[in-house]
Amino acid sequence: MFEIVKSGGLMMVPLILCSIIAAAIILERLWSLQKSRVVPPELAEKVWRWVESRQIQEKHIVALRQNSPLGKILAAGLANRHRERSLIKEAIEDSGRHVIHELERYLNALATIAAISPLLGLLGTVFGMVRTFNAISSAGVGNPASLAAGIGEALIATAGGLIVAIPALIGYRFLRRRVDGLVVDMEVEAVKLLHALDDDAAAPQAVVEE
Fold it and tell me: Residue 40 in 3-state DSSP?
């Protein structure tokens, strides 16, 4: 295996680095973007109970912020629950933008790796062809062994670029789709919170403290 990589020439070094980085990003994002970590199923029900019983305290909001990405969005709404609906919505949207930015972390880097890996492979192909033509100019075409190294370098570099790019692109598309799905789920819960706060504001005020 090492001999094959070595035969691919200089461009195999950045391709190997790209493959390591891409694998690390995919594994890290798969762990971080688990639905149970981003949108805990029991969290929304707990918040609705707080709203209905009017037992929302500062400690609840702090705990929400530390719970999950969805918790940060819901905490932003609850922290502004006594303000106008438009201001609550604005606070939720602002928090949502920060949360989405966190969910998309490293995805641009993964997309960049998927885009540049074939180009690195193509550059390695060019180097291999230059090596082949140099061999032809020095030894002619009568000795196939003198051409094999350059042709082998060109083909291995091309294959290496594609081997890195294809999984990176698949990983990027898969993770991008997962982020979009999680964003939709969080939007649904944020809208429910807005409606719950509206209902709470419209109901007769009866403060219940723990």
Answer: coil
What are the pLDDT digits (tens) for 145-179?
Answer: 666 766 777 788 899 999 999 999 999 999 999 99
Identify the residue whose tokens are 């939709």.
184
Q: How far is Cα 11 from Cα 154, in angstroms, rounded to an integer?
A: 10
Give the whole-angstrom CA distance, residue 8 versus residue 159.
9
Taking alpha carbons only, the member of 117, 109, 120 closest to residue 25 is 109
- Verdict on whether the full-model pTM lies above 0.85: no
Q: How many CB atoms lie within 10 A of CB 199?
A: 11
CA distance 47 to 171: 34
φ and ψ of 205, to 5 deg: -75, 120
- Are 159 and 121 in contact by the 8 Å Cβ rule? The answer is yes
Q: 66: number of CA atoms within 13 Å, CB side?
A: 6
Q: Give the whole-angstrom CA distance, residue 92 versus residue 64.
A: 13
